[in-house]
Amino acid sequence: MAAANDTALAAAPALPSGRLFSALWPFAALLGLALLLPLTGNDYWALIATRACIYWVLVSGLNLIVGFAGQLAIGYVALLTIGAYTASVLAAGNLTEPLHPFLALAVAALVGALCGVVVGLPALRLRTFYFAMTTLGFATIVTQIALAWQEVTGGGIGIPGPSLPAPLDTAWGFYYGCLAVAALCTWLTGNIARSRFGRALVTVRDAEVAAEASGIAKPRLLVMVFLLAGALAAFAGGLFASLQTYITPDAFTFDLSLLFFIAVLIGGRGSILGPLLGTLLLTLLPEVAAPLAAWSTFLYAALLLVIVLAMPGGIAALIDPRNRRRLPENRAVVPRPELLPALLGQQPPHAGLALRNIVLAFGGVRAIDGIDLDLRPGEVHGLIGPNGSGKTTTLNVISGYYRPETGGMTCDGAPLPAGDAVGRAARGIARTFQTPRVVGEASVLENVMVGASIEGRAGFLEALLSLPRQRREERALEARARQALQAVGLAALADVRADRLQHSELRFMEIARALMLRPAFLMLDEPAAGLSTDEIRRLDQLIRAVGRQGTGVLLVEHHADLIFEICDRITVLNLGKVLAAGTPEEIRTHKEVVSAYLGG
Amino acid sequence: MLASILASGLAVGAIYALIGITYNTMYATSRVMSFTAGQLGMLGGVFGSLFMLRLGLPLLPALVLTLACCALVGVATEFVAVRPVLKSLDQHLYVLSTLALALMIQHATALEWSTEPQPFPKLLGIGDGIWDEKYWLPVAACAATILGLEFLYRRTLVGRAFLAVAEDNFAARALGLPERNLRIASYALAGAIGALAGFAGGQLLLAFFANGALLNFYGFVPVALGGLGNNRGAVIGGILLGLFQQAANFMVGGIFSSVAVFAMFILVLLAAPQGMFGAPAARRV
Lengths: 600, 285
Fold this sequence. Notes:
The complex is a heterodimer.
Chain A: H1 5-11, H2 17-36, H3 43-68, H4 77-92, H5 101-120, H6 128-148, H7 150-153, E1 159-160, H8 171-194, H9 196-206, H10 208-213, H11 218-244, E2 246-247, H12 254-267, H13 273-288, H14 296-310, H15 314-319, H16 340-344, E3 353-362, E4 365-375, E5 380-384, H17 391-399, E6 406-411, E7 414-415, E8 429-431, H18 444-449, H19 460-465, H20 468-488, H21 503-515, E9 521-525, H22 533-548, E10 552-556, H23 560-566, E11 569-574, E12 577-582, H24 584-589, H25 591-598
Parallel strand pairs in A: 5-10, 5-11, 8-9, 9-10
Antiparallel strand pairs in A: 1-2, 3-4, 3-6, 6-7, 11-12
Helix pairs in contact in A: 1-8, 3-8, 3-11, 3-12, 3-13, 4-5, 4-6, 4-11, 5-11, 8-9, 12-13, 12-14, 20-21
Chain B: H1 2-30, H2 36-54, H3 59-82, H4 93-112, H5 133-155, H6 157-167, H7 169-174, H8 179-200, H9 202-205, H10 211-226, H11 231-252, H12 254-271
Helix pairs in contact in B: 1-2, 1-5, 1-6, 1-8, 1-10, 1-11, 2-3, 2-4, 2-8, 2-10, 3-4, 3-8, 5-6, 5-8, 6-8, 10-11, 11-12
Keywords (chain A): ATP-binding, Cell membrane, Membrane, Nucleotide-binding, Transmembrane, Transmembrane helix, Transport
Pfam families (chain A): ABC_tran, BCA_ABC_TP_C, BPD_transp_2
Membrane topology (chain A): Multi-pass membrane protein
């Protein structure tokens, strides 16, 4: 129910102690209250509190799926059912020799992990509503199988739950056991939430395209989270069967699924404390309002509607201190290009990026019609042309979002596979977007840290347990992100939620995220759009400084002044074809360019 | 046996197809898939039983009242669960808001009507055996709905305005079409179609609150398989689903038939996420 605070200390090494305290005191207070609960001596409270702990074990995992990854897994009661039946059947010996209850619980968790992936797999291909439907369908199927497979599950008559040995065989003993598991789950999922995996999950949720550009592979990430959430849910199921002492399919109503799902949403997305409070609230609500028990599901649903319409941020948004602090007005972004050498280092020699005869058509329109382009290390290369001439499309071909029909690309002499957006970061290709793709609910610092996701070596298990290598990497990553923010001039806003930033600040934040990769190539899609004249001048210095570190910069822009001022080389596109290519002087005097684009 | 598989398969298939059309009608003007589609079908049965058996109304007034009540529920859906979240369609909040409303409808029905299936009256008393009206009524209702919609969309100005909004919301608004009123009208229409499904299928499904969730799923399958917003796909998908399900029902028994339907649904969707007749996903960057 609450975090083991000493261990969580280790998980967030870079936090100053004041903020650490404000982040952890609610967990410590809840744990303290939970530990003191037996003083009431009321066994009914033991039952309710144990149930809350068990629900939280499930919800903590589901929170990573719904709250962090944004996948609407509604029918999660299915995994509770699977866990409960697996543990009970194995402990009772209906299939094999009776197993020790602890072993039965462990097997249940394993089975749950597998089923978690099976339930989750459709999410890799299907859109939100579809996925919600498939999880609902799965929940129905599991209950029906439990009813039909009588010789194993006892059908409608049911089966006794596993009875745990001493000291877990008394009401309070079992309560303490479940409390310990719940606290452990808080710590584990908290570790994930604060790791690169947690940041990657919210980025996949809110800015999937940016996640791909940062090299985050959604399938692998989601499968790991589905494994974890499935195991936790099924383990909770085993404990639930033990608490009930006897289970029938009727015990696993859809209402329970709804409770889990709504607990996460009431709690708020991307938070651990919020869903924890949500779980407590929903478990206690029917006890407090006993006359309304028959209407409890109706109330849950009404609550869900109110939350969605009135406060989509949930409890987490109410208690988030980052929302309240006032930001200085009239603040200016002042980049410090002199910090770039320390951040980027010097790029090793590189053969450059080359496009040959690229053709891409949307339906009947040839958006790019045979483009050649050479991007050399250390050069700032401008890509200009009228609207619809294929500039951003070219960028998207290089980034792997579009797959050209013909033509080849090479990067450092090796072929650059078409259409592999996730693989671009590993080749040192970073980019920004015409409309900034950011996670509004995460801090500026976290948004920037996402940029170096592929450098993480510590695996999911290391992050889960917050092992030393993981903590070391996090410290190094955070230090570098702060450095990048200083370089682009946003250091003062590092801990602010990104959705409170102005548009121009978001542009610089995206550049900082791209620089985290120490890219060999940086592609900027209209970085000056919406910036003031002063800001454009500073951006201009920043881009030139990036070029000096040996990074090749591809700049799509409409501000002709900026382009002619800082570019070493310019390619002009018109109707998907290269109209002219050369140095700024050559382009400025090119007759066709002047008449088609520059005017005069 | 083949005849009864065909008769019952076509009957439930027609009901699923109608619920699919209900989904599509709401989707066309709002780009929202609403969990209330199945509940509208459930309410069609419940209101029909209420008006005819409990209040003793004759067939026609009961039918008209049922359609009107469900049309109102459809409009309420638009006001409560759809319009407030249309601004941020990309956040998919409509999944949650319509789910919440659907659950509220379902539980209010369970508590205020009954938690047990209640009988639904014979409507005409024509035919018996596999030609019993409970089998051909849903098919007739489905055919009538398709003809009605075709007439509406092709021959009337309002119908063409519907199509315009469905095709391109912004362009339609720029032309001066009353986009908001058309959306409300389409939700009312969807309510009536859903009600017709429940009313015509009342003798098969009875007046039972839990039908809502069932119809939600089985009505969505044809939409997903046929492609979003594609009524022809929904009808073909619905009939196929009905036949497949009833065949599985007769051959391997009820529980495994739902497992079979679910497995088929997942496999087809994973192979073709946009459905058999749907358009590929739009550009992302």
